[in-house]
Design a protein that fits this description.
Helices cover 35% and strands 18% of the residues. By secondary structure, the protein is an alpha+beta fold. It folds into four domains: 3-61, no CATH class; 75-178, Potassium Channel Kv1.1, Chain A (2-Layer Sandwich), CATH 3.30.710; 226-332, no CATH class; 340-502 and 531-563, PHR domain (Jelly Rolls, Sandwich). The termini are far apart. Residues 5-9, 11-49, 452-465, 498-514 and 540-547 have low confidence and may be disordered.
Length: 564
Amino acid sequence: MTEEVLESREWPPLQTIGRRGQSVDESLSLLTDGPINHVTDFSMVSAGVSTEALDDQLDEEETLSARFSRLLSTEDMSDVHFVVGFNRKLRIPAHKLVLSVASPVFKNQFFGIRDADEEDEDIVLSDVEAPAFLEFLRFCYSDKSQLTKDNVVGVLFTALKFEATPLERRCERYLRTRLDSHSAFSVWISAKKCRFQDIEAMALKAVERWARVVCLSTDFCLLSDSSIVKEILLNNNLRISESDLFVSVCRWAKSQCLRQNSCPTRVNLKQVFGDLLSLIRFPLMTAEDIKSQVQTEGLLEEDQIRSLLSARRTWPRVARSLPFSSEPRLFQRLIGGQLLSVQRFGSFDNQLPNSSPKTRLSFRTNKTIFVSAIGVYGPRKPSNSSLEIRIRIERTERFRCRSLDSYETQTRVKSDSSEPVITVRFDEEFEVEAEVEHQICAEITLCERIGSRLSALSAPLMSRSQDVHFFYGTDAAFAQKVKPKSGQTVVFNFRDDCGLVSTEGATSAPPTPHPPPRPPPPEGYVRRVSRFDRLKRALSFTEKKTLTEEEIILGQIPVILFYL
């Protein structure tokens, strides 16, 4: 085709070439006199294979991110260098174009107004860790990230610094879903270095909850900063016994001696401990722990051991001549504290049908409590089958992470219907913060009794679970007060959620506002049940006109056991 013909031809607008859904032949025919002929390189297209299938095959062979990944941390075509690290510096090559696409901060820095003298200088990042910055570069070049408990906080700091929003969301998702007893300590240390107060507070909550696993872990033994150990020993909310805490600190001190190339003798251990030894609360230990652990290590003098053993036999031990604190930590407060309970219903009944196996209850308190057990209504009649009860309590306001804000337990019991309420105890106490709404979900499943038959025979019983009817509560209260022996009154406010099983044709009543809590009765006042009410309960009489079936399933969690 000659130049005169090309100049005289009327070309289509630019946006029509290669538009979405246009085939390759249609796009190329606009640039030639007629349709092009297929050549041997496009044999797959001429054989009937679509261009989309060809593109998919090429994508499987090598993607754009795979090609850019080969340029990560290489000098090939690099035009900028970074010097990163706190103590140990690392010089890393990079490419301005790739970084500018991933970060608006780099776009303004590289392609905005800049002095000519700074073009060839290295960019120093003294507040960014080298492993975190390398992981940030991996995201910029390949859109992938390998987050771990050691680098997630540093990567989050780097993503916030350079405004990489997708990487920031990945780090936050990792913290919400992966924070557990094995990663809490590393996340807490990294958050303290990066000065993330929110993440530091969240990780500290996890360290306090899983203090025994954290203090006996390898990460704690490899800790080089004694101020972190001091902060842990001063914490009153640790869920760990004092003997386990003493063992973990001794392991840390011995590892410190080995890192300093010194033998972990008694003198060297005392030098490593310094004033940390006085922060261990020896009066909280039992006599067996003092003899088998403390006396064996030889860190205390003989007169101090005798003073601890000769102290009063009550708990905690009181040794006035020793400089050790006897204030109980959270672990000792929960073990030796008063177990309180709140009753939501005034009474219970069994006349109306109630086959709902699922229920939920939302509540909030005016003080921080630690829930130890939940009571649910059981079946009315005994049977040869067992009940599988699944309890889940979770925080519904200002959710932080899954491991801290939710707890789930599952147990199997054999109910003989002698008691209307079945108590399900937790393996560990769940913390409910003050003025934060929480929700309890309970699910009861009828299954084969343990050890009676094969588990395959439980399927017919599962289908008949709706035939089993449960007790239900009456005279529900939207607010209850619990007065402990010592301390302030705990106020519970309940929100009546609709049951998970509804009655066909039932009309929903308008929501009832939460009334203010009733004042507590006078000290020593006990309300006596009338003789007529006792007779009705004994004969299982009830006034059905005051209670309907849809009102029964509004909430079937009658008891909450907790510590302060």
